Amino acid sequence: MPLVFLAYLALVAGLALGAALPAGVVLGAVACAAVCACRRDPRNVGLALACAAGMLQTVAARRVDAACRARILRGGRTDAVLEADASPGARVTAAAHGCALALSLTVARGRADAGDVVTVRGTFAPTARGALVRDVSLARTGEHMTIVAMRARAGRTIDAIFGADAPLARALVVADAAAIPRDVRDRFADAGLVHLLSVSGLHVSLVAAALELLLGAMRLSRRTASVAAAVAVAGYVLLIGAPPPAVRAGTMLGAQLASRVLQRPSSPWTFLALGGAVPLLLDPRAVFDVGYQLSVAGMASLVGGRALFRRWIDGLTDPPRGARRTIARELAVSAVASAVTAPVVAWSFGRVSLVAPLSNLVAAPIVAALQPTLFLAVLLAPVRPLALHVAGAARLLLRALDAVARGAADVPHAALAVAPSLGTAVCSAGAGVALLAACAARSRWVRARAAIVAAASLALAAWSPLLAVSGSGEVELHMLDVGQGDAIAVRTPHGHWVLVDAGRVWRGGDAGRATVLPYLRRRGGPLDAFVLSHPHADHVGGAASVLAAMHPRRYLDAAFALGSDVYRASLEAARTSGVAWERVRPGEELRVDGVALRVLAPDSAWTASLDDPNLASVILSVRWRGVRFLLVGDAEAPEERWLVERAAADAALADALRADVLKVAHHGSRTSSTPEFLALVRPRVALVSVGAGNSYGLPNDDVLRRLALGGAEVLRTDRWGTIVVRTDGRAITVDAGGERWSVPPRSTTPDSSRGSSDP
Fold first, then answer.
1. Is 736 in contact with 715 (CB distance < 8 Å)?
2. Helix, strand, or coil (residue 152)
3. What's the predicted TM-score (pTM) here?
4. Which of 332, 328, 308 lies closest to 440 in space, CA to CA?
5. What is the average pLDDT across 134-145?
6. How far apart are CA 724 and CA 733, in angstroms?
């Protein structure tokens, strides 16, 4: 590999270290690296300086972000560029004007269009990426960002001409994958085609090649056609918002064009280093963008795989020719790409595709025809009949691509469900870099050393889960997004888990295997106990898979007599796995790492009189120092009234029912969350586990209104995905939808505006 590419890798390492380490440690490391490098050869000096530059760039970006966030939060207002049309009741994203800060807005007053610069006033709460702003009042400033408006307009055009196929078309044309259904995303991940769902180097290259071919057919010279195509691609990259993968591809195309025009050929590794560095120099945060990582890894695999193929072909006495040669080359490239990108895909999507080399071979010609066709359909939008005609052809290609993904994902054992720890992912990524070095090296000695490094990295990846130290020192409640069902994991300060319910079951799978197991294993730590609220399939469906895989010491539930088949399967899995089953009793307390989990209901006398499992839901109070969570399963009004009546005569029970965080009963159904019960609990945060677009119409509007009027901040998995609530025993923070914010202290006067962010 040329020095410029090694310098690029050093820059990436520096950016990652700068984000992971405290600023003081970074500055000390930069100083040590500079001193050490000066005593070595110039090559090492350059690499050390590149790494130091990356660390300093990240530290500077962190300080700018912190200052910007503090200014906005302190002032309670900011100017922002809207990324979508805004109106009262809408929840939209925006970017702080003149500041790299993401805003999530819940609009109460005012209207504005995508691309408008507006003054935002509201209740600001800091998050990991920026700020969450509730009760927003918008006022137009008169400024307008044309590029943002054009991207939004292109999205609406795609929706109009592609109909049901619009989510895939949006992802491939304007880099908007938000509307792609989860099952489609999972299908593409299983097939090894998930990289196609974001505008990356492949898409930009295809558009550039199509434009160059079209301009060439118009009798323009090759140089003129290339320059015109490069200009058009630059405009396209700006139109879609300049995502890091597209910037990388556009920069590479520009560098290759300059090389051709100036007749100064260079190594493809040099072009890749230039293309990869530009997005990072513009925004160091891009190093953590999954699309950027897949784009760079995929391009590096293309270069390395072709080098490996040429070396292999040169060693054959009778090399393949024609179509056989092309297929062999593409298989070699696809195999290298699958291995190099596997750590990124495993970390981001929780799986490794085993059929990726073959599925990419089949999908490649479809994408080659699809991408320019989609681009042409959008360009022809002003001529609606012609645009619909071209869109019809693109729609057939979209469905063909989806059929390839479906067919590949349906192959038995097409993908392995994995949940790597951070250490495993880093070691696996190191093995991928070593593999690329082995592919690119001309010297056998260098290839041998790279192979040793790759083997050592894989060995460390295999051992790292055993060496990992889990636990954050806080108590965490993870309400997993399992669709229409419940799965709640409580994590102790030392990283142990207690799982309450395990989600639903469906033909051929369950939430335990698909969601719960990968989630817990990625974060590490043993499962100490499994608590089942009641034996309905949307709560116990994934239990057998979890019990068989993680072997908790205890399985606790209310022993409701009328159990389901999946409930009996969970009991059988517990028996064969050596998990001790116990019936819960009110007043019993389970302690794990100092966290107290107290059973409040039901008792055997209450349970014996019932024929509905919901009414026998286990009510569990989780206490850590001064903060309490209340988990109520699918408890309905009769069980709530039973608790309220007992609490009237039992001060200890009344105190135990009071909670800062409430898992709302029965997915927000109107049969639960009675005013008397909520008045007793008085939650600050109310969590609703519910499937998106469910046929039950849950959560119920009246329930949400009661929670909001009581001062609770309402969060739903159908809108936020998995929700994590953390506490150190005093303060409470929430992670949801890629945001993080602190929960305000309990107010003595309920604020009806709180909770309205998620009605």
1. yes
2. helix
3. 0.65
4. 308
5. 88
6. 8
